[in-house]
Amino acid sequence: MTSYPLLDVRVTTPTLELRGATDNLLDELADAVRNGKTHADPAPYDDPISFYEPDPDVRVAKWLRAIWRGRGKVEPDAWRLYFVVVVDGHPVGMQDLIGVNFSTLGTVTSFSWLANDQRGHGLGHEMRAAILHLAFDGLGAKEAGSDAFVDNHGSNAISRRLGYEPNGSDWATRQGEPALLNRWRLTRDNWEQRRRDDIHLHNIEACRTYLPLS
Q1: What per-residue confidence (pLDDT) applies to 40?
Q2: I need a labelling partner for 75 at 20 to 30 A (CA). Which of 11, 99, 108, 209 fits?
Q3: Is the whole-model pTM more than 0.85?
């Protein structure tokens, strides 16, 4: 999309590709949202999130509106890059990178989901590794954070394997009920120890031009 180069940013690994979440890619992914393929048990998402909307068409509409709002907010204290996860040419989920006071602190966090028929094959780990490569190698991040409910064993295991360290706990609600979160912290030094040479960044000059990185 030549008019908005941030949507042309890509990250590629031997297994998958993160592509900027254009409306065309979101439209391809909408059936997964409509059909409830974002669901997991126990529920991994804190409130508020569109995935808990019971009406499938309203769920898709709320999901799209949230992404459009997020794409449009680019401020020094908060920005968000949305990527569609593509495997063998097919969209299977999303992986986001969120700048948190990045220009001052150099910190990021992430959010992701994967269609339930694609889980259990290591894609969650690969998605997170790809977005961390963009953050640290491409954007010069100093630290990455993550959190997951204590019963979200998959996400917590990914954080451990990628070198995150425990960073306390917190409370959030999911579907209106309180639940405990694990917080995780990945320093640049810990990421460097596990740095991969088979993850490649494309068109990231747009990030340096259009994001408030410094």
Answers
A1: 93
A2: 11
A3: yes
